[in-house]
Amino acid sequence: MTSTDERPAASLTIAEAAQRLGLSTHALRYYETEGLLVGPPPRTTTGRRRYGEDDLRWIVMVQRLRATGMPVREIREYAALVRAGEGTERQRLALLTAHRQRVLAQLEEVTAHLGAITAKIEGYEQRVAASA
To answer: Among 62, 70, 125, 131, which residue has the least CB neighbours within 10 Å?
Structure first.
């Protein structure tokens, strides 16, 4: 006999999901309350969250969007478009394309900064080698 609280195959508790994703349980709850998930994770009959592979893949995408500087309001908008389903692909494409352009501009700027730092390092390495 199985418990009604037994988790379905391939589902994780909030603690397990948080550990696997490198997040805190607080962060996962925040993502849910802020509307950043496509939908709330399923719950057991006792109300405990269960995260499946689709949930984890979506959260990884949210992490990537945040790591590349997408504002929470845009992620919320993107999640809402995904929730709305078919017919929102053009809006999703526009949102992600605009974000990609911002990321590419940031990458270009950081690459220029890195070049300046590398040049400075090379100058110091030459001075150190010459004085040895």
So the answer is: 131
Instruction: Kindly report the pTM of this predicted structure.
Output: 0.82
Tell me the fold of 14-131.
Multidrug-efflux Transporter Regulator; Chain: A; Domain 2 (1.10.1660)
Domain ranges of the chain: 14-131
Question: Which positions ≥6 away from 81 have C-beta within 8 Å?
Answer: 88, 91, 92, 95
Nearest-angstrom CA–CA distance, 98 and 102: 6
**What's the pLDDT at 10?**
63
Phi-psi bin for 23: left (phi > 0), alpha (psi -120 to 50), beta? beta
